[in-house]
Write a structure and sequence with these properties.
Length: 550
């Protein structure tokens, strides 16, 4: 049976099927990490992002493909984790743009949407790299436009697009030498093919998605308990959880958000391109609706009294969490800092450097854009300085500026030592522009080394590395390896130190005892008599040592 169009019902099913197939194959995608370090998380980041997208899309009651795609786009943005997740959110955004105004999707519209998805993602990345998920998306979009006049059956059309995309994926090692050297295809591209394949499976009735399994689409990080104590209602300042959609010609979301800001808390206003979604906790839902009516017609209106229905709120804990973390704060100081960190000792270091909010995350656990926004909303500075401290979190951090009306500055710190160096350069008496300049300069002056273990056999730069070997890294290059943690560490330091260095700070992780760390410090002190060696408990997982060398 030919499939001429995808309506809203089938689109929801296809999106959910895509998420489910990726979930099944998440660990395979994670394993396609170029370096054999224990932080391969591309599959996890893409899955959590797409789950957030699908959950928002499934919440649309209307059988309108564009509205579903737009809601999914908004969900993906808030749930975006890691570079792969942010790029995926831009693919959702472009896809929604490509079907704008369409209640259902035919072959030509789908081709346009796939092409627009890739174009949007490319524009979102400052320096696109070929041989990545971007290449796979672009090739799929271009091929879709090329063949859309040859096929009327959407399933057959999409099958051909996926075949072409998979062929492109197999060529990614030829485009990126590091992939070829590691013997893997691009992880993000592989994840995208799984998403497209899951989408296709729903069209032919062989999808992994079952209606009864909607609960599996909760976009919560693995290992986080969902248990909560009974909710007390006395602290509910704003009783009515109010949600609605506005059909409007206005794109001035910021002005409308400012209008609603005084009505309550947990305010979320997102959208554009003819549709705005509003969520607010208020004691005056009628006023919120009246303000919405000034922009256009309303739909999907939902008002819950949280005092009377607090048990229902308990079941929908994401609303409770959002209410708790997004309360409107009164601006009371000039600067606030939000830093990503993981490890008891590292958290204390950042707190000692006057960081207001710590977002737990790092390798293998990249926080989402929404996680960062919630932390920002808990601060009360006129200027919020955000330190991602991980190269895979920088894009998600940048997205916060698109969905928040706070004055946010992202210092693109790629690791913990850079985050600490940036804070040490900050001056309360300097202007924001002066601080940005000095902080950026200071992160360039710190050298970072890290020691972890290999999760698989590999060969990099003609050097054979075996599973469970201890490896020393700097700037994503493996510079030393062996069986002894401290010996590998000394060799790593030898290769990255220079004559200008005056201090080496050793942050030892949760799998290293203090005596072992002090033994390493003694070895380095004997070797470099003119350099100060400092030992600090970091408590970070996975990485035995993090070195800050200045």
């Amino acid at each position: 049976m030919n499939i001429d169009v995808i309506d809203g019902v089938l689109l929801k099913r296809a999106l959910a099927s895509a998420a489910k197939l990726l979930e099944i194959n998440k660990e395979e995608v994670n394993s396609l990490n170029v370096f054999p370090v224990p932080d391969g998380d591309t599959g996890t980041n893409m899955l959590l992002t797409v789950k957030s997208a699908v959950k928002q899309g499934l919440s649309v009651e209307d059988n309108d493909a564009y509205k579903i795609a737009l809601a999914s786009s908004q969900g993906s943005l808030m749930g975006a984790r890691g570079n792969s997740g942010v790029i995926l959110s831009q693919l959702f955004r472009g896809f929604a743009t490509g079907i704008k105004g369409k209640e259902s999707i035919d072959v030509k519209t789908l081709a346009t949407a796939l092409k627009q998805a890739a174009d949007t993602a490319y524009k979102a990345v400052m320096k696109p790299t070929e041989g990545t998920i971007l290449t796979v998306a672009r090739e799929c979009g271009e091929f879709a436009i090329k063949i859309c006049k040859e096929e009327n059956d959407i399933a057959k059309f999409l099958y051909r697009v996926i075949e072409h995309g998979n062929a492109t994926l197999q060529r990614t090692p030829e485009m990126l030498p590091v992939l070829k050297q590691a013997g893997v295809v691009d992880a993000g591209g592989k994840g995208l093919i799984y998403l497209y394949t899951g989408f296709y499976n729903a069209l032919i009735g062989k999808d992994q998605y079952v209606d009864d399994n909607l609960g599996s689409l909760e976009s919560k990080p693995e290992g986080i308990s969902k248990q909560r104590e009974h909710i007390e209602t006395d602290d509910i300042k704003f009783a009515y959880c109010t949600e609605f959609m506005i059909n409007t010609d206005s794109n001035d979301i910021e002005s409308f958000r400012n209008e609603l800001a005084s009505l309550g808390d947990s305010l979320l206003v997102v959208g554009g391109d003819g549709m705005i979604k509003v969520h607010v906790h208020t004691n005056n839902p009628g006023i919120a609706l009246e303000k919405g009516l000034k922009l256009g017609s309303l739909k999907d209106i939902k008002i819950d009294n949280m005092r009377f229905q607090h048990e229902e709120v308990l079941l929908k804990e994401e609303l409770k969490e959002q209410r708790e973390v997004s309360k409107k704060v009164e601006i009371s100081k000039e600067y606030s800092f939000v830093s990503v960190s993981i490890g008891e000792g590292l958290d204390k270091v950042f707190k000692d450097l006057n960081v207001d909010e710590i977002v737990s995350g790092g390798q293998t656990m990249n926080p989402s854009t929404e996680d960062l926004i919630n932390a920002i909303n808990r601060t009360n500075g006129n200027n919020v300085i955000l330190l991602p401290n991980n190269s895979n979190i920088i894009l998600a951090a940048e997205q916060t500026k698109k969905v928040s009306d706070r004055n946010i500055t992202v210092i693109p710190t790629k690791n913990i030592p850079q985050g600490i160096a940036a804070l040490l350069a900050f001056s309360e008496d300097a202007s924001l522009e002066e601080n940005i300049e000095t902080m950026m300069n200071n992160i360039e002056n710190v050298i970072t080394g890290q020691v972890t273990y290999a999760v698989r056999d590999t060969e990099i730069n003609d050097k054979k590395i075996y599973k469970d070997d201890i490896i020393g890294l700097s700037d994503k290059s493996i510079l030393s390896s062996g069986k002894d943690i401290n010996e590998v560490s000394v060799e790593l330091i030898e290769k990255i130190i220079n004559e200008d260095i005056s201090i080496i700070t050793i942050f030892y992780g949760e799998d290293v005892d203090e005596e072992t760390a002090n033994n390493l410090a003694d070895s380095l002190s004997n070797k470099y008599e003119d350099i100060d060696i400092e030992v600090i408990f970091g408590g970070q997982p996975l990485y035995y040592y993090i070195f800050s060398i200045e």
